[in-house]
Amino acid sequence: MPTTAPSPKHSTSLEQGGAPTHALGDVTASDSTLRRFLHGLPGVDAVGLEARAASLGTRSIKTTAKAYAIDLAISMVDLTTLEGADTPGKVRALGVKAVHPDPTDRTAPATAAVCVYPDMVATAKEAVAGSGVKVASVATAFPAGRAALGVKLADVRDAVAAGADEIDMVIDRGAFLAGHYLKVYDEIVAVKEASGAARLKVIFETGELSTYDNIRRASWLGMLAGADFIKTSTGKVAVNATPSNTLLMLEAVRDFRAQTGIQVGVKPAGGIRTTKDAVKFLVLVNETAGEDWLDNHWFRFGASSLLNDLLMQRQKLATGRYSGPDYVTVD
Predict the structure, then answer these.
(1) What CA–CA distance (Å, rounded) separates 135 from 79?
(2) From first to last of its 331 residues, what are the pLDDT tens digits of the chain?
């Protein structure tokens, strides 16, 4: 199911107001050119997309391959706590767990990152110091994104100043659904600039975008604006990451690299709770985007409970015994 974008009339790079420069730069020159480009993307065959995702979900892997997949999935987890009741103690404990997920087995890989609110970044940074585990922070008035741009940028700068390595921003879904694509684009560009050296993950909240066509358009919009990752969801709505919407986004990053030479990561978030779920998503990555994305620099799981199940399944493979939920900490 190719998602190749229509070729713009001019393919020269464009640099304006800090916007990214790439082969598709001209399509963001105005609201009308951007709209024409996004609505010129091929329509999504919903039946075909869901059938493809379901088919890939039936693949099974065993023994050595399964052990590799579990460790790979652990290394891709953004271990997340985004609750109003988060305390410094909880965040410190989460950081320790991210660095050593299984305290009884130091061969277990560390997670990719800890993801927290901006006011907890400094605490998380201290907890993972020297480990290589990144600290990600949600920003831009997460999860609704209903704030003025100046407030959102201040949120980002606070997180970066506290030491955030990665910023997870939410797009203005109201503006996107109203067709104000250039406004959404400009906001992503501004957040990218405010993020400095921190990598930027752009959250679409796919459950609120209503259609697969909108998810495809949002994916290309985010990548055109300079996203380092495109991310499905906040985890705060009823419909979060699904195999189908993740497959669609994987197709988009694959085709974006083919056209621009720029590789962008994908992060499904929310609702991925079991090892079986994680393996299905890894199959999607391998079969759609390819092996280049089978690395935590390019693929992440936004999760909290997933890590516990991965650890239990890892222990079962190693010992032949199922340890049960008491084996792991409750986050």
Answers:
(1) 10
(2) 555 555 443 333 334 446 777 778 789 999 999 999 999 999 999 999 999 999 999 988 887 899 999 999 999 999 999 999 999 999 999 999 999 999 989 999 999 999 999 999 999 999 999 999 999 999 999 999 999 999 999 999 999 999 999 999 999 999 999 999 999 999 999 999 999 999 999 999 999 999 999 999 999 999 999 999 999 999 999 889 999 999 999 999 999 999 999 999 999 999 999 999 999 999 999 999 999 999 999 999 998 899 999 999 999 998 887 666 655 665 5
Active site residues: 168, 231, 267
SS3 166: strand
CA–CA distances in Å: residue 2 to residues 5, 18, 209, 229: 9, 30, 21, 20
Q: CA angle, corner 204, sides to 177 and 145, nearest 5?
A: 80
Spatial distance between the Cα atoms of 101 and 253, rounded to a whole number of angstroms: 30
- Nearest CA to 312 out of 287, 294, 330, 298 is that of 330
Which DSSP string corresponds to 11-67? ------TT---STTGGGGSSHHHHHHHHHTSPPP-HHHHHHHHHHHTT----HHHHH
- At 314, which helix (H) or strand (E)? helix 306-319
- Closest CA relative to residue 142, chosen from 193, 93, 207, 83: 83
| Preceding amide of 143 cis, omega within 30 | yes
Residue where the block lists tokens 């693929």: 299
